Amino acid sequence: MSWTGRFLSFARDERVILVSIGLATFGLVSTMITALTMIRDDNEIPPAEPKTQYITQDTEDSLQLDTLEKLLDHPNFSIKEIAVKILCDRAANDPEVITYIWFGITRPDYEERMDSLRTLAVLTSQTGNEGLARLHDEKAYSALVRCMELCMQSTELPVVTDIHWDEYYLRDMGERFCLMFLTELINKYGATMLVKAKFVEKWLAKQAWGNTPEERRRNFKDYMDYRNNRITDIVNRIKHSRRGLRALEKAGLIDKESSRRRIRELPDLLMEVEEEIAAGEQSGEQQSRRTREHSAEEQRLRRQHREAMVLNDGTRPLGREDIIERDASPA
Description:
Elements: H1 3-11, H2 14-42, H3 57-62, H4 65-72, H5 77-92, H6 95-105, H7 110-127, H8 129-134, H9 138-154, H10 173-189, H11 192-196, H12 199-202, H13 213-226, H14 230-238, H15 242-250, H16 256-265, H17 268-283, H18 296-306, E1 308-310, E2 323-325
Helix pairs in contact: 4-5, 5-7, 6-7, 7-10, 9-10, 10-14, 15-16
């Protein structure tokens, strides 16, 4: 049989015919799917991205109080948050509102004080550094200290002499609110105004440190050594100023020798900067105050401290770690 006959015989085989039909069908279907996919991709209309819309200051100012009240009840959380932010911004820039809050936290009624403290907490949390800056004045520090006095009178004094547990979280909620605000303030602005508001005399010294002077000093020292809470943070900042050390000494919480030694350890530059800030707040002028130099050794130490570099970018209060002093040299 010739090759032509063998080919015809192979082509007439049913198995070959079925395979050929199957391949042809597969090729046709694949071609149709590919063509339809290309047509679909070419005619696809992408969804338009939503444009970000910002609320201008004019739009905020035009919103009336009744409108903001309705927005506060809106089910959308973002809209409600924006309404709260607008109200807090308005309150932070309204001196009457701030004065009313200070009046509220100094009222004898406990619930009225707590409502004012919660309002103040919302105000500072929504406005950030701007709201915190509104608290940095003598009226604010005096009001917070007075609030702590009232909270102390309305509850029993906690035990501060047990070194095995921290009483801070069992303190009155109003006291903890005030301590939170004071911690944020002194971390940003220093403790000078807090000391001037008599925080040590009106609140810290009235804690149950003990009955005798020795017992009070010992228990206070143990508290500072074994605790790590906002009270110890505030006291540590107070110890960075000469005025604060003298207040602690006068209150009987540290002895005279420790106070004088700590004052000598503080660099003159740091003390002078703190005093200049305090003087600027009172008179609006920067005045340099220097302590008397009683001996040649003190003069040498003071000259050495003055020969220093201060590295601070202004984002935090000036601290001892920011000052690089010249190495000591023989007298």
